[in-house]
Request: fold
Amino acid sequence: MDARKRRRRFDELAGEALDRLPRWVQERMENVEVLVEELPPADAPNLLGLYEGVPLTNRGWGYGVGGTLPDRITLFRATLEAGDPTADELRDRIRHTIVHEVAHFFGISDDRLREIDRY
Reply:
């Protein structure tokens, strides 16, 4: 598969994963942007995804008044595609990464995800 088709397929799989989140999760994800970058940061070469923003649990009463930049969830395509996964494996990796980063948006830490065996 050529690079453009692979990128398009990756984007489709990410969209499917977002569409399959429970409705109540989708409704709460207001002002969240999901991006796909080719490579993770140089200081974290194995990173699959990254949440950047203010988790819901840390937002105070006036949060967002006057306009707020969106929170961001970034997926790193090269890392997620590493090892040439099958289509099903890639779908599972993308879904798992999105769910993991959405958990951070909801204020769930890596430690808590480990505790509940969802890391």
Q: What stands out?
A: The chain has one domain: 3-59+68-115.
